[in-house]
Amino acid sequence: MPAPIVQFESVRKNYQMGLVTVEALRGVTFNIEAGDYISIMGPSGCGKSTLLNLLGCLDRPTTGRYRLGGEDVSQMNDDFLSAVRGARLGFVFQSYNLIQQLTVVENIEIPLYYQGRPEDESRDLARRLAARVGLEDRFDHKPFELSGGQQQRVAVARALVNDPLVILADEPTGNLDTASGAEIMKLFDELNAQGKTLILVTHDTHVAHNARRAIRLRDGQIESDARR
Question: In order of start, what are the domains of the chain with their CATH numbers?
Answer without folding.
Answer: 35-63+74-227 (3.40.50.300)
